[in-house]
Structures are given as structure tokens and as C-alpha cells.
Amino acid sequence: MRIGISKSRYTLFRQCPKALWLKTYKSELCVTSDALQQRFQAGSVVGDLAKGLFGKYVEITTYNGDGKHDLAKMVVKTQKCIDSETYVICEAAFRYDEDYCAVDILKKEGSGYAIYEVKSSTEADNEVYAQDVAYQKYILTHCGVEVTGTYLVCINSDYVLDGEIDRHKFFLIQDISETVAQEYPLVEFQVVKAKKMLALMDVEPDEDLDVHCHKPYDCAFLQYCSRNLPERSVFNLYRMNFEKKIAYYQQNIITYEQLQSEALNEKQQMQIHCALNDTIYINKVEIANFLSTLTYPLYFLDFETMQPVIPEFQGTRPYQQIPFQYSLHYLEQEGGKLKHKEFLGESGEDPRRTLAEQLCADIPLDVCTTAYNKAFECTRLTELADTFPDLAQHLLNIRDHIVDLLVPFQSGWYYVPAMGGSFSIKSVLPALFPNDPELDYHNLAGSVHNGGEAMSIFPKIKDMTTEEQVAARQSLLKYCELDTYAMVKVWQKLKEVAEI
Fold it and tell me: What are the tens digits of pLDDT across the range 240-295?
């Protein structure tokens, strides 16, 4: 069987050979995170914008009847463009033996062509990206194309939209020829090595967990590769970086029992003690002191945001967090009725001004507001205040009166083994209220069950049918409402355990 290597296969092999084998022969084991899906989507959008960087271009991409790339036709079209010395070729396709690649942008330079690799990142990780580009140079060189330069096209994080998008300011172009030159001699050896591994269809590579599971990218097969770990292992420890966890793992210090004698911090020791003894830790005094800082009327606030890779609204930057929705539960007095207010912007329109105005109307000055991991809400409020100076005093007043409901858990005053070393509300809530269907995000009707889905669906609503728009908006409202209702339930549980 002839096995071909592509640039994506090559870079995956360079990170972890086993990941490439699994993707080839056991792709059903792949777990694609929301973050990875969003990275793919961002890459596609950015790639389309970059095609016009050098003016008029020829697009090579061709599809067959199944909607897949027709590589054979793309190779032929590319060669015709090369022969006619086309100035800019996008998605130029090349095949050498059974190996192939498509170049984002191929630009005529002197007697040859320069490779421009487009990334949706705002940071140029030259060492990683050079592997990708060096592989392309290897294929093109063997196809008889003189590669006169290798460049990386990344996003300018300082770019601010002012009028129409300006490609030349939005993108930063960096010459990575030196780094590519260091990687280039390794390519042929790595390609041969990858093919030999893939030729053994029935032999899964014996690649153990290591730092490459998260570096340079999170591996989609980590869940499979870690399936034999005990439920309570070093990988579940609170606030320990992955490199240190791997160091323990490689010393065969894996289980909580084995970790008891290690020099861990106080919270990690508490986590292990509670798990091994099946006990809950509650510091009533500290929790009571924390609760005493909360006053009525009491508000519970949560934002939902989107992060357009290409700025859609004037004055915004690439990947800027744009709040488009909030939920607000509140109690006007102790023992009072729980009330709720909410805001959801219009898809396709800049929601920030309307959101900020309604928020100022919904939350009075000098009242106590809570958030879970308040740094997020506080940062959004600061940004809104900077954008709308006439609302700044009120917005900053809300920010300055926010109390973080994360504190009792992050401080180690309340720990339940089921939290598993995570203090996010998605871990705390089911640990405090196990088997409560009312608080189970999976039970939400509709298409939104987490922040990633909310971020993804909101920009798409403008392109939906009326019926689909109604359903999507309802899903967003119910999801965000559960976020703040969950905060209310957590606050009530804190009062219960502190016996207030």
C-alpha cells in the first residue's frame, strides 16, 4: 500500500508519531475540542483574507463530486500556472511520489517562487511553523520549483479596525528562512520514518504520555492515550503544570497514594486527603467571613462573548472579546423573591453600546454584584468603559463592587472530592449538586450547552431562517440564565454549609 504524507500529517508526526497513526487508522477515537474547531474555522477565514495580500491571484482549489479536494486536478492547474509564471497562486498543489502539499500563497520572485504560510495566530512560533514550511519547500524542490524565500504570515494583534479591513496592516509578514533552513535537512528522514510507521497498519506505536501531549498543540487523542490511568492520578492535581505532572509520571509516581509523601502545596495535599478518605473539607469561619462581604440588593452577573478573528466592528482588534449577552439574577432583600433580567444583542450588529446601556439600567450604583471568576467580567467592564466614556463612571462602579464567588473554592475553604481538582463552576456545580437535572447543562434544550457553543452560534444567527433564529436565541438565553442561576445555587450552598 502506498502511503502519502501531507503537510498536516508531517507536522502531526513531528509532534507525536502515535497521533498520526491513530488519526490514520483509528480516527473515531479523535476528540475534537471546541477550541480546536474554532481554530480551524479561524484558519479558514484568515486564509481567505490573506489571498488578496499581493493583489490579483489565481485560486487553485478544486473539488470533486463528493465535495473533497480533487488533488490531481489541482496539481495540473498549479503546473500550468507555474509554466505561465503566474504572479500569485493560492492553494498551489504539488505531488512528489505519493507525498503532497498545498501552499497557502505562492508568489513569483526572480527565477522561482516564495512560500507564504498563513497562520491565524497572533504569535509567530517559528520553530513549529518552520516544520510546516520546510516540508513544503522539500516537496516543491523535488517538483522542480526553485524556492526563493519562505515567509510566515500572522495576525497583527495591535491592528484596530478603522473603516474597511486593511490586509496590509492586519497581517504581519516575517522571513523565517533561517529557521526553515535548520529544519529542512530533517524533512526527508522524518518523511521516510513516518511512512514506515504507517505501513505497519496493525502495529500501534508504543508512544507514552509526554509533554508533546499538549505541546505545541493539545492532542485530540489524549483521552484515549490516558485511558488506563487511575481515576485519581497526578494529572488531576490542582494547579500543577503539565511538564511537572509528566515528570512525576515518568518516575512512576502516579496515584494519590504514591503522591502523599511528595512536596505538594497545601491545596493539592487537601485534594489528595479528601479523595483518599472520602471526606469533604469545609472552613466555616472563612466562608462566613466571605459571605459577610456580600450585601443586599445582591446581583449575580455573567457575560457571554464572541472573539472574531477578523474584527467586525469599528475600533475592535483581532480576537477581541465582544460581550453580546448577559444574564442577571438578583435579590432585592434577604428572603426576597429571586428575579431575573437578561440581554441578548442582535447578530451581525455591534452589541456593546446597547448592552452597556442596559447593564447600567439593570444594575444600580454601589450595589453588590457577584461573578464567578470575576476577572473576566471585570475586564469586559473596563473595556466597555474605555469604549464608552459617557457610561464609564457607572460601568466602573459595577466593576469595583464585584465579589468573586470563586474565592471560597479557589482558597481551599470548601472542597468536595468530586470537584477533581478543578474549581470552575462546571466542576463545582455537579460536585455540590450531584444528579440535579435542573442544574445539568446537558439537559438544556437546543444547541447551546457551553460557552464555546454560545460563542460559535451567535455570529451565525444573522444567516439563519426566522424559525432557526428564534430557536438559537432561546437556546442562548436559557444557557446564560443557567449560568447565573448556578451562581445563586452555589451562594445558597455556601450559606448552608456556613450555617448562616
Answer: 999 999 999 999 999 999 999 999 999 999 999 999 999 999 999 999 999 999 99
Per residue in 165-206, pLDDT (tens digit) is: 999 999 999 999 999 999 999 999 999 999 999 999 999 999
> What H or E segment, with its residue span, contains residue 329?
strand 322-331
**CB 10 within 8 Å of CB 210:** no
Q: Is 58 helix (H, G, I), strand (E, B) or coil?
A: strand
Strand partners, 136: none
What are the Cα distances from residue 168, in Å, to 165, 226, 312? 9, 44, 17
The mean of the pLDDT values for the chain is: 95
H or E element: which one contains 369?
strand 368-371
- Which triple of cell numbers denotes residue 214? 499538549
Instruction: Return d(Cα 481, Cα 342) in angstroms, integer.
Output: 8
**Distance (Å, rounded) from C-alpha 418 to C-alpha 413?**
15
DSSP codes of every residue in 255-303:
BHHHHTTS---HHHHHHHHHHHHT--EE-HHHHHHHHTT--SSEEEEEE
CA angle, corner 316, sides to 313 and 319, nearest 5? 105
Decide: 444 and 478 in contact? Cβ < 8 Å: yes
Cell numbers representing residue 142 in the block: 523535488
**Which H or E element spans position 414?**
strand 414-415
Element (H, E) at 437: none
**What's the confidence (pLDDT) of residue 410?**
94
With a threshold of 0.85, does the pTM exceed it?
A: yes
Q: What is the mean pLDDT of residues 453-458?
A: 94
CA distance 85 to 92: 13
Q: The dihedral of CA 450, 451, 457, 461: what is its sign? A: positive
Q: Which residue has the cell 442596559?
A: 358
| Cβ atoms of 378 and 402 closer than 8 Å | yes
Q: CB under 8 Å, gap of 24 or more: what pairs does 252-260 form? A: 254/229, 254/230, 255/230, 256/232, 259/234
Q: What is the largest CA-CA distance in the chain?
A: 81
Say if residue 68 is exposed, middle or buried (CB neighbours under 10 Å; 0-12, 13-18, 19+).
exposed
**110 DSSP assignment:** T
d(CA 133, CA 176): 9
Polymer length of the chain = 500
172-193: string of b/e by CB count within 10 Å (b at 16+)?
beeebbebbeebbeebeebbee
